[in-house]
Amino acid sequence: MTTYDHGAPMGATGLPQPPRWVCVLLGLFMVFAGLMVLGDIAFFTVVSALFIGWMAIAAGAFEIFHAFWTKGWGGLVWQIILGVLYIAFGIVLVSQPLTGALLLTYVLGVALLASGVVRMLIGIGRWQQGGGIMVASGLFGVLAGLVILTGFPTTGLWVLGLLLGIDLLSHGIGWLTFAWTPAARAA
């Protein structure tokens, strides 16, 4: 039998909010992990490439399994090809994580540059509706992409680790901030 704590404050999703101690613990752990990653960004760039590689292999294997499991749906050959590509990509990342980190960083640079240009164009087209924020966001993306691409291949040795560290640190600070909001204090 399942019981629910109807006394816990509800979040926007209608689900009970986690207790404050859970938010604090998660926040502290993520801040610690972020600082560890920022302490050796080159090492964690390689770790990131290895993790992405193993996940790509798992996703490819599942895609192939899914193709045979649901072969009546159609697209069997395309699903198998996609699964094989995922596995091949994962094997490259796992067998040569430094080369994989370079590849991922290059793709990230191109994606940031392209998405920044698109955001700037959308912002210019919507200038009257507050498109200036979109232009600024796009400019930031273009600059980030250019920093990565103009410094390549050297940037491939640190960009992924730096972004992972910043993400973990900001996520941890977000959880700690949430833990001290009035809504979380009631929990």
TrEMBL record:
Coiled-coil residue windows: none
Pfam families: DUF308
Keyword Transmembrane helix: yes
Keyword hit for Lipoprotein: no
Transmembrane residue ranges: 21-44, 50-69, 76-95, 101-121, 133-152, 158-180
Lineage top rank: taxon: Bacteria
UniProtKB keywords: Membrane, Transmembrane, Transmembrane helix
InterPro entries: Acid_resist_chaperone_HdeD (IPR052712), DUF308_memb (IPR005325)
UniProt protein name: Uncharacterized membrane protein HdeD (DUF308 family)
Natural source organism: Bradyrhizobium japonicum
